[in-house]
């Protein structure tokens, strides 16, 4: 089964082409979208957070409760059809959510393999560190998720990423 990562600008095409059963939207509160056609509202997680890694006035940082909601949502995914994850640019929040999904659904698998897989599939991936920090604690990964993401360094510089897929299981590559 696959997880797809996309910028907001590509989700309509992605929904049409990959036919996901579940959608995760990570957008700031002012630009949050309604559930697109082709997705059941109960299968659309909408997390209204800004792409920041620390408290900034008037912005909503990804909090532990947001990441906990993401983990519960992906653990409820039946994995019969793909999941699509997107943020505004498809670079930070969405790639963090994809990495968190891999770690949440593959307990005990080495985090660095998942981080390298996300980067190999999306050279622009630069997972949001605050989201990863919360997930590391919630999933009891003892700092390994953070270390894996930090070891990646910055992703390829771009204004917007492109749609890419990641296999849910390493052996599906």
Description:
- This protein is α/β, with parallel strands linked by helices and 173 residues long.
- Helix content is 36%, strand content 15%.
- It has helices at residues 11-18, 64-75, 93-105, 111-121, 129-138, 144-152; strands at residues 2-7, 22-27, 44-48, 83-87, 164-167.
- The mean pLDDT is 95.
Tell me, rounded to a whole number, the average pLDDT.
Answer: 95
| Relative helix content | 25-40%
Beta-strand content estimate: 15-25%
| Head-to-tail CA distance between termini | 10 Å
- Give the tally of β-strands: 5
Low-confidence stretches: none
State Rg: 14 Å
Strand ordering within the main sheet? 3-2-4-1-5
Query: What letter string, H or E per element, gives the SSE order?
Result: EHEEHEHHHHE
Individual helix count: 6
Backbone structural class: alpha/beta
- Mind summarizing the main beta sheet? 5 strands, mixed
Shape: globular
């Amino acid at each position: 089964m696959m997880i797809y990562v996309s910028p907001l600008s590509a989700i309509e095409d992605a929904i049409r082409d990959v036919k996901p059963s579940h959608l995760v939207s990570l957008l700031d509160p002012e630009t949050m979208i309604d559930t697109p056609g082709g997705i059941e509202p109960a299968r659309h997680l909408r997390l209204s957070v800004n792409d920041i890694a620390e408290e900034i006035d008037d912005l909503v940082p990804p909090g532990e409760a947001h990441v906990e909601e993401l983990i519960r949502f992906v653990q409820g995914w039946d994995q019969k059809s793909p999941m699509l994850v997107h943020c505004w640019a498809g670079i930070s929040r969405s790639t963090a959510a994809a990495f968190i999904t891999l770690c949440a659904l593959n307990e005990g698998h080495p985090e660095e393999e998942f981080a390298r897989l996300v980067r190999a599939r999306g050279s622009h991936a630069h997972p949001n560190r605050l989201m990863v920090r919360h997930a590391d604690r919630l999933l009891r990964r003892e700092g390994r998720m953070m270390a894996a993401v930090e070891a990646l360094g910055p992703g390829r510089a771009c204004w917007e990423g492109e749609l890419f897929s990641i296999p849910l299981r390493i052996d599906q590559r």
